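Encode chain A's predicted structure.
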Amino acid sequence: AEFRMDSHVVVPADQTALQVEALAVAVVGATVVLLLLALITAYFDRKLATLTAHEAEALRQSEARYRALIENASDIIAIVDRRGAFVYESSSARNVLGYGTIELIGRSLADFVPPDRAAEVRAFLRTMLGQARETASIEVPLLHAAGTWRDFEIVAKNLLGEPTVGGIVLNMRDITERKQLMAQLETLSETD
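Encoded structure for chain A:
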């Protein structure tokens, strides 16, 4: 840009005129500073985006690993509400009990025990309601989808106060073979 002073412009004597070279240096300096700030911001933005992408991928892999472990566990991990109805099931029930998640959700744990043990299971769950963050266990037979009875050890923990869980967590382990083996060992110990 070129600026020319003509005779119509009057500069008061007490006001110092800005030198063209100084103005150019000031404009170039301010532009360089702004460009450097933009470059530094872009660099850190890219670093942050890369870090965020790595963290998101690590979280996705961790969740996939957790889901695979839970779904293929030999135990059933479930959550029941205050009434004892299933609200979550780890998808391992299909392998262990023969029931899919849809068949379990909304049904009571007492629906799967023999009628003469249903009151005992309900009492167990009521007891768990009064024991926040406490653990207790019970052994009961559960009805397999094939119509047979399987012996289970159920370990319960009251996590109703935990916002991410909001129920009683049940870890249900099939102990049928272990009980049969113990019965055989007991029989063998009594016979010669």
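Strands lie at 76-80, 86-89, 135-143, 149-159, 167-174.
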